Predict the 3D structure of the following.
Amino acid sequence: MLRQSQKISNGVKLSFYGSSQEITGSCFLLETRRAKLLVDCGLFQGSKFCETLNEEPFSFNLQNIDALIVTHSHIDHIGRIPKLVKDGFQGQIFSTPATREFAELMLLDSMGVLEKQARKENKKIIYAGEDVELAMSRWKSVEYHQEFEIGNLKIILKDAGHILGSAMVEIEHSESNSAKNKKIVFTGDLGNPPTPLLKPTEDITDANILVIDSTYGDRLHEDKKERRLKLERIIEDTIRLKGILMIPAFSLERTQELLFELNTLVEKGRIPFVPFFLDSPLAIKATEIYKKYERYYNKEAKYIMSEGDELFQFPGLKYTLTTEESKSINDIPPPKIIMAGSGMLAGGRIIHHTKRYLSDPNSTLLFVGYQAKGSLGRLIKDGAKKVNILGEEIAVGARIETINGYSAHPDSDQLFNFVKRSSDTIEKIFAVHGEPEPLSSIIQRIRDHLGLDAIAPNFKDSFEI
């Protein structure tokens, strides 16, 4: 391990400033003699301690950094970019076009949440609208496989299959006195193929250094057919009981995938007709962006669209964009289905629906995404009998269901097989974006079965590679 003050030789220094022994706050610094770049700069989420980390100064010299590469537009990968710019970063930002467009939407939405929280706690907000605007002015779109250079680093973005526009960052490092170039790959968040909309994760077969997403390193997801059947059963059971099905959903990808699945179930007559509400302005706006990037869809989705079918619209579905429309959902008698953000019950309109219906034994709260430690979603998922929602103690009477198969992250087998494809060339693996248990599990499996050097770095650890 290196201290921050040590100089870089002809090698490469890699430092971890987020997503280390935890899920959120993704931020990695790669340094060579001729280039310094960041990969991601995300918001820490899930607890008061995380919120404090967001307010702290960055632990590296911002003026010396040449560029920031963004893997995808989830807020735990982009949420501190405006703060980065505000605090002195003057380099250029690179991502795919879809990621750039989603990022502006997500950052402005996040700013509203942060402003509200700052006012409540009498604190300064970590960034403002002008910081978002400045960040976007420096943000350049790069298509998949379009090579670009930063110093002595050649960089290519490859399709990660996680959300629309998500990318793995493949970096080739060369030195004039080196006989062989080194290939460093940051996976960002990998996908969970096959997905209803996206192409599968591209193969990586020649990485030397791998920084890999390990969110579900200790578990397996349901089969794709099984997850659709489980969704169908949960809907049918809730309708039979004349209850309300609440789905806290992440605005990017999870919402669009579920709309696609529900479209299929409705059109094939697999579920009864009931009112269905997409009650999330962010998800509604994100879905409009999805419609612009058909070139990123898989063959099945493209075929369905060529037949004239709307992927994100079906009988019974209503988009509730305004506050008044959202409140009017309460006037619709059950059974009904409500999908709204945020995915971890950390805020958004789903909070109000959960407060209203969580105590109802005929209703169901369905989790289809990861619930970070410290979040309200995690407390309920882990079996809490009572929870505090908007200052009021609410009994958990509704049925609590989870479908992991809709996760946008790969499971343990998929992670292992992804690593295995590069096992002949890998020299070092850094497992990130996971809690200690899944990190330990996937690391041990890689060591035992592939004989590779794999570790889970801690926050602020640095390595010469």
